[in-house]
Amino acid sequence: MRRICVIGVGYVGLVTGACFADLGNQVTCLDIAEDKIEKLKRGVMPIYEPGLEEMVARNVAAQRLHFTTSYQAAVAGADFIFIAVNTPPSTDGEADLQYVRMSAESISEIVADYVIIVNKSTVPVGTGDAVAEILQAHGKKVGVDFDIVSNPEFLAEGSAVYDFMQPDRVVLGGTNREATEKVAQLYLPLRCTIMTTDLRTAEMIKYASNAFLATRVSFINEIATICEKVGADVKEVAAGMGMDRRIGRAFLNAGIGYGGSCFPKDVKALTWMAEVKGCHPQLLRSVMEINRDMRRQVLAKLRELLGSVRGKTIALWGLAFKPNTDDVREAPSLDIIHLLQNEGAHIRAYDPVAMDNARRAAKDVTFCDDAYSTAEGADALVLVTEWNEFKQLDMARVAASMKRKVLVDGRNIYEPEPLRHLGFEYRGIGRGIEQSDNQ
Questions:
Q1: Which alpha helices (DSSP H) does 90-126 contain, by range?
Q2: Tens digits of residue pLDDT in 32-85
Q3: Is 262 a catalytic residue?
Q4: Once rounded to an integer, what is the mean pLDDT over residues 300-305?
Q5: pTM over 0.90
Q6: Domain architecture of the chain: domains with CATH
Q7: What does 315-384 look like in DSSP terms, one character per residue?
Q8: What pLDDT, on the 0 to 100 scale, is given for residue 176?
Q9: Annotated active-site residue in 5, 19, 262, 368
Q10: Cβ distance 347 to 413 under 8 Å?
Q11: Do 256 and 297 touch, CB atoms closer than 8 A?
């Protein structure tokens, strides 16, 4: 049984710790946030993630998973130490590595025997070398050896437990082949493809992967904008594209853009890294620009249908940046709320699980108990997050309760014609409706 310490109990750290415990390891999750650790000890999850609460409870009961705020208790005696702390972006896009450095310094002050440090946080290329320097400086003084392995995460919020247990691949980067192989052994029960490379290449794989996925999202949104002008339906266009094996269907759903803790931060950080090195990352800049523009399109569509949003009541369905999470970081909903409030609109909103986080992030919003009450009396309704709940609603009831039957479908989850028959003035993203209405 391996002894694993995981530093950080955010999405990555908590999922990583719980899953490794479920694979039979002895895991201690460490975080300096006392409130998070106390909640976890009581079985209260600090995040919403399907399947995670049950997995944590199962492994705590089996005494394979523990939580602490003490570096001494978590680090001493560990065979592997995973650093999974937050790396928030600065204003210029550079990743803030203060928590990574603090973790490395704290580790170096405690460990007395050889240990493998595994960097799970998303960090700029070269961070593994910087962490090694911190640890080696201390190791030389006390005669303790360390090895650094980069193990970037590829966990999507809403499916993180599944993604860990059923990965497309595990990427490991390091300078010591034996240390890398020892980390690889932790993943052997998953029977997945394991790719080994050097530290910097492993770090770059993470950024390049997220940047490419974000690029696909912005590409199809650019196509959606063109579709609206020429009268084409982007859903059919994406379906036709996806049939090509060279292209595939993933991440070709037009809408109001990406959000969350990864894509915005990672594309921005990669852009910053490229600029610092003298590159000209114009494609990455365009990806971010298109993503910002998609939020503004919602306001433009509402202006077109309502004339002005000033004094109007706008209902929002969905606040989380994507379904199956309570995360509102960089969520399109927050940008849309801000844009509408700046033009004098009143906002009513509802989300199945993200209400508490949204209340902290958005001010002067009327938060409602369910989707129906949110739409009641509204001048317009905006579908922001494609929760399954919103696909199953009685739209005739919704239409009857609204002051004006205006619906902007920001994720294209509805078919236009049935809604038109109910009296809705419908606008999707790239559905060609504007063109066909004017012919």
A1: 98-110
A2: 999 999 999 999 999 999 999 999 999 999 999 999 999 999 998 999 999 999
A3: yes
A4: 96
A5: yes
A6: 3-196 (3.40.50.720), 211-437 (3.40.50.720)
A7: EEE--SSSTT----TT-HHHHHHHHHHHTT-EEEEE-SS-HHHHHHH--SEEE-SSHHHHHTT-SEEEE-
A8: 93
A9: 262
A10: no
A11: yes
